Amino acid sequence: MSRGLGYMAESSAKAALIALALLVALAPFVVLFFNSLRPADEFLAQGAGLIPSRLTFEHYAEIFDPNGDTFRYVINSLIITTASTILAVLFGALASYALARLQLPFKLSIIIGILFLVIRFYPKITVALPYFLLMREFHLLDTHLAVIIAHVSMTVPFVVWMLLAFFEDFPRELEQSAMIDGCGPIRRFVLIVIPLMAPALAAAAVLTAFLSWNEFLMASTVAPNAAKTLPVRISGFITDKGILWGSMSAMSTVIVVPVALFALFTQRYLARGLTVGAVKG
Amino acid sequence: MRQPQPYPQVRRPAGIVGRLEARLGESGILLLFLVPALLVVIGAQLYPLASSAILSFFDWSLSRSPTVGPFIGFDNYVRTFTDPIFANSVAFTVILAVCSTALQLVCGLGIAMLTVGESYTLRLVRTLLMLPMVVAPVAVGTIWRMILSARVGPLNQALASIGIDGPNWLGDPNWAVFSLIMIDAWEWTPFVAITLTAALTSLPSEVMRAASVDGAGRWTTFRYIVLPMIMPIFVLVAMFRTIEAFLTLDIVFTTTAGGPGYTTHTLSFWIYQQGLKYFNISYAAASSWVMLLFCVAIAGGFLLWRRRITAWQVSR
Questions:
Q1: Fewest Cβ atoms closer than 10 Å to its Cβ: which of A129, B112, B167, B241?
Q2: Residue A276 to residue B134: CA distance in whole angstroms
Q3: Is B311 on the interface with A (CB under 8 A)?
Q4: How far apart are CA B154 and CA A166, in angstroms?
C-alpha cells in the first residue's frame, strides 16, 4: 500500500470516526458534570447553555449535609463492595482450583461448571422475590449481609468461569514438585497457586467490584433503608416530588467518578476479565 | 531430610494445616474447597429459584395474606398468558433486545476495527470508550434522562439552535421506545467492542499476510477471512448481549419508569412491579418462570447456531 493521498484520506477518515465515537461516549458525562455544578434555578430555564452561568457546589453541599444520609450510603456501598469482592474471589478461586484438579466421576466437574455458567443467564428477577422472603425469614432484611450474600452468589459464577479458563494454561509442574515434597492442596494453593494466579485474581476482583458497586435489583429488594446502597439512592430522586435535578446530578457524579477513575487505572484487568469468558469459552 | 528442596518455605514441619491435609487426603481437601462457593450459590440462587418455581403454583399475594395460599395449578400461568400488559411487555422487550443488540454489534464491530492495535493512543481511546459500560446502569438512566429532557434538555436545546423542534424523547410512546434502545446500545456497545477487539487481536497474522500476498482486497479479506474467523465469538457476544438486553431493568427505572402508560415496561420491570410493588408473589413468580424459559430458548438458539458455524468451519 503506497502512502499516498488515499492513505492520508483514509487515516483522517479513521481519526474522524474515532473522534465521533469518543464524542458520543463521553459527552453525556460532561453534561452530567456541568449539571452537578449548575445553580438550581437554571435547570428549568430555557436557553441555558451547556456550561452553567455560574458554578456552584450547593448540590454537593446539600447531598453531603451532615444531617443527611449520603455518607451512610457511601459507607454502605463501600462495605458491601469490599466484602463481596473479597468473598467472591476467595470462594471462586477455591472452587475453580478444586474443579480443575479434582477427578470427579461422571464429568461432575463439567456439570458443576455449567451450573455456574447458567446462573449468569437466568433473570435475576426470578430469584429476587424468593430471596427477599428468605432474608425476611432469617431476619436479615435491610442488613449489609443480605446484600453481600446476594452479590457473592451472583459474582462467584463469573469468577469460577473466568479462573477455570486460566487454570487450563496453569503449569502443573510446579505443583507436582511441591506435591513430591509432601505439600497438600492447602499449602499448594496458598504458596504456589495464589501468587502465580495474582493477575487473574486481580481481573476477577476488578470485575466483581464493578458488578457489586453498580448492582441495583438485589440491593433495592433486600436493603431499602438502613443498608441502602448508592444506586438504590439515585433511583429515589425520581419518585419523590418531581425530580431534584441538581441533587441527582451531584449524586450521579459521586457514584460515577470513582468507577470511572477505577476503570482508567484497572483497564487492563477489566478488559481481560470481560473477554476471557467469551474468547476462551 | 529429602533432597532436593526447591521450596524451602513449605518444608517447615507440618503444623495444623499439614495434619489436616494428611487427615482428609488430597480429594477430601479439594472437595472442601468447593463447599463455600456451592453453599452460597445453592443458598442464594438455586434455592430461591426452586422456591419461586413452587410458589408459582400457589395463590399468594403478600398484600392479602402473610402466608402461602392454596394450590391453584397452572392458574398463574394462564393469567400470565392472558394478561395484555404481559404481552405488551414481551413485545417491547423483544424489540428492545433485537434492535439494541443489532446496533451494538454493528457499532461495536466498527469500533473494534477502528481501534485495534497496540499504540498508546489507541489503548487510551479504548479505555475512554469503555466508560459507558462501567458506570452504574441506574446512573446511566439519570444521565440520559437529563439529556433527553424535552423542554430543557441539552439535546433538544442543541436541536433548537439549528432550527429543529426536538421530540419529547421520553414522554412520547414511540420516541420513548426509540430512546431506550439508544440508551441501552450506548451503554453496552463498549462490551461488544472490547470483546471483538480481543478476537481481532488473536487472529493469526500469517493468514492475514497470506491473504494480502494473494492480492485479496480489504473487503474480500474482511468478508471471507476475518468475519468467518471471528464468527464463533461474534455469535457468543450476540448471545450475551441479547439475553442481557432481554433482562433490562435498571435503566427503565431511572428513565421512563415504564411509561408513558405501559409502553416501556420491560419484562423484568413488569415482574418487579408485580412482585415488589404490589406483592403478587406467586403471580410474579409464574411470570418470571415464563421469562426464564424465554431466556433458555434464546440461549439454546444461539448455541445451536454457534455449533453449526464451528462445525461448518471444521468441515472446510
A1: B167
A2: 17
A3: no
A4: 46
How far is B88 from chain A, CA to nearest CA, in Å?
A: 18
Hey, which CATH number is domain B86-315, 1.10.3720.10, 3.90.45.10, 3.40.50.1000, 3.40.50.300? Answer: 1.10.3720.10
How far the first Cα of chain A sits from its last, in Å, is 36
Question: B262 near B86, Cβ under 8 Å?
Answer: no
Nearest to B136 among A29, A50, A214 (CB): A214
What integer pLDDT is reported at residue A82 of this predicted model? 94
Q: How confident is the model at residue A85 (pLDDT cuts 50, 70, 90)?
A: very high
Question: Where are chain B's structural domains?
Answer: 8-55, 86-315
Instruction: Please state, in angstroms and rounded to a whole number, the distance separating the CA atoms of residues A90 and A97.
Output: 11
Neighbours of B87 (CB within 10 A): 12
Please indicate if any CB of chain B lies within 8 Å of the CB of A45. yes
Q: Which of B7, B37, B243 sits opposite A94 (nearest CB)?
A: B37
Contact A271 B136 (CB under 8 A): no
Which three cell numbers mark A145?
Answer: 449481609
Yes or no, beta carbons of A28 and B147 under 8 Å apart? yes
In this complex, the residue of B40, B131, B296 whose CB is nearest that of residue A29 is B131
Taking only residues 66 to 85 of chain A, the set having a beta carbon closer than 8 angstroms to any beta carbon of chain B reads: none
B26 contacts A129? CB cut-off 8 A: no
Give the residue on A whose Cα is nearest the Cα of B199.
Answer: A279
Residue A193 has pLDDT above 80, yes or no: yes
What domains sit in chain A, N to C, each tagged with a CATH number? 5-56 (no CATH), 67-280 (1.10.3720.10)
Q: With 90 as the cut, is the pLDDT of residue A260 above it?
A: no
Q: What is this model's ipTM?
A: 0.84
A100-109, B67-76, B121-130, B258-267, range with the lowest pLDDT: A100-109
Rg from Cα positions in chain B: 26
B271 by Cβ neighbours in 10 Å (0-12 / 13-18 / 19+) ranks as: buried
Contact A46 B157 (CB under 8 A): yes
Q: Which of A20-29, A259-268, B32-41 has the lowest average pLDDT?
A: A259-268
Would an 8 Å CB–CB cutoff place A173 in contact with chain B? Answer: no
| pLDDT for residue B96 | 93
- pLDDT at position B280 is 85
